[in-house]
Amino acid sequence: MANRTAIGVDLGTTYSCVAAFQNGKVEIIANEHGNRRTPSYIAFNKSSRLIGDEAKSQVALNPNNTIFNVKRLVDRKFDDPTVQNDMKHWPFKVTSD
Which SUPFAM superfamilies did the record assign (predicted)? Predict the structure, then answer.
């Protein structure tokens, strides 16, 4: 049987992780900080884009440009009642376009 490799991504509401299946074993891949899960946050500032721990640390300083809970938007339309309710609690703006 051929040696098969697969990569899996778990996009979680609060944390995400990546795993590799190789040689009959699953290994969760550590991020640049050695953690096996990464906060599901993205932040934008004037000069860069931050992800994970760095982005999460920006939420208090840069709330309008720090995105989180993205999984709650997956496969939902803008006018979905759940999306409309969630938007009331997020500091960032969600648009329909």
Answer: Actin-like ATPase domain
Task: Write the DSSP symbol of residue 30.
Answer: P
Q: Which residue range is the domain that position 21 belongs to?
A: 5-87
Evaluate whether residue 39 is within a structural domain.
Answer: yes
> What confidence score (pLDDT) does residue 75 get?
95
Q: Where are the beta strands (DSSP E) in the chain?
A: 5-11, 15-22, 25-29, 38-39, 41-44, 49-51, 66-68
Please check whether residue 95 lies inside any domain of the structure: no
Structure tokens at 38: 């990464």
**What SS3 state is found at 48?**
coil
Tell me the H-state helices in the chain. Answer: 53-56, 81-87
CATH number of the domain to which 43 belongs: 3.30.420.40
85-91-96 Cα angle (round to 5): 60
User: What pLDDT, in 10s, does the model give residues 8-56?
Assistant: 999 999 999 999 999 999 999 999 999 999 999 999 999 999 999 999 9
